[in-house]
Amino acid sequence: MTNPNITRNEASLPQRRGRFPRPLKARNFSVCAAILVTSACAPEAPAPTEPQADPVQPDHFVASTPENVSWGWFPLDKEPVLTIQSGETVRIDTLSHAGSTQDEEPVAYLSAMGIPREEILDDVLDFWTSREGRPREGRSGHVITGPIYIEEAEPGDMLEVQILDVETRVPWGINNTGPASGVFSTDYPGARPDDAPLDIPPGTRHLIRTAEVDGREVALFAPNINVPLAPFMGIMAVAPANPEPGQPGVTVPGVQASRPPGPFGGNLDVMDLKGGTTLYLPVFHPGALFYAGDPHGAQGDGEVSGTALEQSLAGVFRFVLHKATPIAGPRAETDTHYLMMGIDLDLDRAMRQATAAVVEFLVNEMDLTTAEALSLASLAVDFRVAEVVDLTQVVVGHVPKDVFLAE
């Protein structure tokens, strides 16, 4: 499924920043080898003398049409919507579930909130019409594009997902709140029977417009409040290993609901997974079978109301396969940090897992002893709660790159 209007232009694509999958050996490594694009390591680029072409020219395009999306789960046997080779780039269109999955027809539903017809994607209408007959048992509410099949990917490999660009498709998003939503839900692990609900009308929906202001895209939250957009895909996943009842989000054999993230990635809702970040996922099935969805225009760590700014997005990704490189679960890398994740039903366990993942990384990749690694984790690593509202909870350890000095 190649977009005829997109031509291959490999030389213009942003190049990889680091070499996270390979040992870094902190006591004998060069910063220029570990971080490929920095002012200290790369030659200074000449000042542009004329407008530059779009640097992201994907090899392929996947639209968010009904045949290319799944509703609330990660099918293991769905025919791939695209087959690519390692190193190729893909633009993936995604749809927010907000405005796409309600019972009311989208134009009537959204126009009542003030959204004109021309700002409603045709893909939304097509998906809504196609919902009839789609099974719902054991599934969640997200609309997910995929799967993409990466040739030669096998169980035990690692899939590197370079997030080259993420952009908004519509100038609005929706955030939901309620008296018992998000961390105030009665079934939230920290809830107590005598907790009072918030003073919010049930089912409150906030339609929030977005626009470019002073050269940056923002959410126009209130007349005196602009929230900078930082669009990212809440869901990036490979097909999960063996969904069996008893696992988080699995009530029907073979059906992994999209709400809880896990070793396969999924609904991580890690706000750092935006353009310029690289995500690494273990491979459980031939072809890896990559999915993306749950697009967010902006989100704070925690996603405490239960939703972010739910806004349809398009992302451009490069997929790089690493053979025979097993990892236990998702991890990521920015220009400045390595990100190690802990995912568990219990927030304390998620924190412990994230810490253990950081220690293991520092031992294996940076040549520290276990004692040194835990000491450095306590001194230099920030542990942030990425999200706590999707059954399993996610803690991310941010390991700063700048503590590892060149010799």
Quick description:
By secondary structure, the protein is of the alpha+beta class. It has helices spanning 31-34, 106-111, 122-130, 347-366, 370-380, and strands at residues 60-62, 69-71, 82-84, 89-93, 143-150, 158-168, 172-177, 204-213, 216-222, 225-228, 232-238, 265-267, 278-282, 290-296, 313-322, 331-333, 337-344, 382-390, 392-400.
CATH class call: Mainly Beta
Structural class label:
alpha+beta
Estimate the strand proportion.
25-35%
The helix fraction, in percent, is 10-25%
Quaternary organization: single chain
pLDDT average, as an integer?
89
Q: Give me the strand/helix succession.
A: HEEEEHHEEEEEEEEEEEEEHHEE
Q: How many whole angstroms does the radius of gyration measure?
A: 21 Å
The neighbouring-strand order within the major sheet is: 1-4-15-6-13-16-17-19-18
Protein described:
The structure is a single chain. The protein has 407 residues and is α+β, with helices and mostly antiparallel strands. It has a single domain (10-41, 54-191, 202-403), classed as Sandwich (Jelly Rolls), CATH 2.60.120. It has helices at 31-34, 106-111, 122-130, 347-366, 370-380, and strands at 60-62, 69-71, 82-84, 89-93, 143-150, 158-168, 172-177, 204-213, 216-222, 225-228, 232-238, 265-267, 278-282, 290-296, 313-322, 331-333, 337-344, 382-390, 392-400. The strands form three sheets. The chain has a nine-stranded mixed sheet with strand order 1-4-15-6-13-16-17-19-18. A hairpin with a 2-residue loop joins strand 9 and strand 10 (225-228). Helix 4 (347-366) packs across helix 5 (370-380). The chain is globular, with a radius of gyration of 21 Å. The chain starts with 30 loop residues before the first helix and ends in a 7-residue tail after the last strand. Mean pLDDT is 89; it is low at 1-19 and 22-53.
